[in-house]
Each structure stands twice: as C-alpha cells, then as structure tokens.
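README: folding subset

This subset contains proteins for which both the sequence and a predicted structure token string are available. Records are stored as plain text. Below is the entry for ABC transporter substrate-binding protein (429 residues), shown exactly as it appears on disk.
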Amino acid sequence: MHSPLTRRGFLAAGSGLAVATVLPGLSACSALTGADSDPDTLVVHSQLGTTAPGSPTYLAALDRFRKENPGLKVKNLINGDDLAQVYETSRLARKEPDVVMVNLYDKTLAWTDVGATVDVKGYLDDWGLRRRVLPRALAEWTDAKGRVRAFPYFATNWPIAYNRALLDRAGVDAIPTTGDELIAAARKLRAKGIAPVTVGGNDWTGQKLLAQIIQTFLTEDEARHAYSTGDFGSRGAREGIEYFVTLRDAGVFADKAQGLTSDSMTTQFNTQAAAIESAMSSALAKVPPKVARHTEVGGWPLTDGAVHDKPTILRTYTLIGFWISPNGTKKIDAVEKFLRFMYRPDTVTRFIKESGRDMALRSDTVSTDFPLVAAAQRLGSTVSQALLPDVYVPPAAAQPLITATSTSFTRGTSAAKVRAALETAYRSA
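--- output ---
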C-alpha cells in the first residue's frame, strides 16, 4: 500500500491545508511552531477542548495535572477533523507536538509504519500500564508487525437508537428486528410525517451504517477481506448490497439521506423529526433527557439468510488513543507522567461519569447520568457485532468511500452501481 506520509505526500497535503482554528491565535502556523523545545513543556495535540464530547472533563483533567506537577507546563493544541493533516505538516517540519490524541483511521493508520509516531509497546510495559487496557482494545491498536500504535483510551458502542414514543405514535408496536418489520415501520412513520432512519449519508456515519448493513451476509473474515481489498464481488457482499438497496428504495432512510451529515442526523433525532438513528456513544450522550426517557437501544434488523443470529451493532476501542511522536521521546519523562495521570482510575471515572464516554480501559464505573450510553453497555449478548472497517480500509480509499457512500444512499442507484462505486474507491489505494 502506498503511504500518504512520504515527504512528497506531506507537502501535497500541506499545500491545501485548511485549518478550522478553535483557539485564539491557533492556526496551521502555530501548530508548526507548537513543539516547544523546552524540556519542561509538554505539547499535546487533541480534538478535545471545545464542543467535542468529553472536552470539559479533559480540560479539567489538564488543570489537575498542572497543579499536581507544578514544574511541568502543558501546551494544549486543538484541531477538529483536520487534526491528522495539521499534525503531518508539523511533523514534516520536525516541529510536531509530543503527544497526539486522535483515533485510528484513515491517515493515522500509516503513522507508526513511516515513523511519524513511535511504537509504544515498550513504554506500555515499562510503565506497568498494560494491565489497565482491555485485551480487545490492545489487539485493535496492535498492527500486523506487533507494534502498539498508541495508548488506547476512548472506545465506543454503536447501537441503533429507537424513539419509542414516535414509533408508538405511528402504530409500530415493537422495535423492528427484521427487514420486513423495518420497512413496515418506515411506512407507518412516513404516514405520520416522521422520518424513519436518519443517517449522515454524506459522511462517515453513513459509511459505517452502509458497511454494517452489507455485513448482514458476511462473516467477520469475509468483511475484513472486502474492506481490506475493495473486493465486493463475493456472494455475501452482493447480497448485503442488495439488502441495503431494498431498504433504501422502500423508504427506510430519511429523505435526501445522501446529502445529510452527522450533525443533521443528530439534530433530526434529537428534535424528534426522525425516529431511528445509528448512534455511537458520543451521540447517545447528547440525546436530550426528554427524548432519552423514551428511547431504546438495540441492533440493526436482519433478514432471511443473514450470517448473524441477532440484530447487529458496531463496537470499537480505537476512538482516541495517546500517540507519542519522535519529539515526545525526547521528553519521555514528562510524557510518562501525563499518561500515568490520564490512565489513573479516578481520571478515567470522571470521563465516564461526567462525559458519558466509553473507555478502552478497565473500569467498573457506569455512565449513570447518560442512560442510553449505559444501556448500550448492557446490550451484551442480545446483539451481534459487525466489523468496524476503519483499521482495514487503506488510507487512500477512506475519503473516496465517503463519496461512494453518498452515491449509495441516492435512491434509484442500482445494487450494481453501488458495488461499482465502492470498488472504484479503492483504485487509488
């Protein structure tokens, strides 16, 4: 696989850099100069700090860390979805931050392999923190060469949220568990002027739901092959695409789903304009209490011949990890203090209780103030788990797959054209 992190690739990306600044004075340039050479200043680059779920808890944790370590300064750099691109540009200039908090997806998949970040396996063991990590999380952060890309931190459950009050209003007596039941529910909801399933068909939320539905007829190994290679020609993949098209053309998804985003999806569900959404933990935590009180979580309905025996959800332990940069290895004592602090049970507990975050670390704490997050944690064996394809999709195919997703959610697009769009996304990979 061609790496996007060659110097030529870095510069090409950097020339079109668009940075959505969220701190006064913070820009691409400040990111480039953010790696303070002062050994008493730790530079952390994160998506947490503004409106991202967990931001208030994270900022409060930084304040506590500073008070406990008065001789160590912490400079906090914040970016949104463009964090990976900003980091890559700063790494090219050898001015990258010491620690990066970001998920394992798209560009970041190649970081450890090309030396943009370091293998943290030795640090995880030397600092005695391995025992704090859930085994499944450690496995997901470990690459094919046995390297641990980052210290695992945030995880997520990704069930289907059903607004029982809206279903009842439409005369839907039970949560749909089959495709036929879902289609029937969608018709009743539409008759009442309620959108059935809202989804960001124009971004990553739609891409994940599409992948989940396609896997109705795929085993985990078959799904891994399809999303690693872009080969959607197997019988199971073709049947999964056909199932998706059947649901789409039956009106299961909200109108013009191909143009919706994650923001419009959550707005539709949270304002009760739509009855159903595929919602990861951070979205579940944002559901207003008056809506959460009559919302249930479950899996995606199956159909005859499915390889799963129960409705499916997604789970992942790769939502946010702590990556150590080459600059970070020069301040490894400071990095160790920071990571020991963030791994402490009391710090982890606050993320769960205050922010409703699922964690990749061991903890007995439950999100009591976030009932839907807690309900998703309790689903257990009542649902089946589909494969989240993020760590298998080649980085070069990640964004083209979003374009293919929008095409797929466009009503009238045949199953053959959906398959072609998905496979075309891999041609540059």
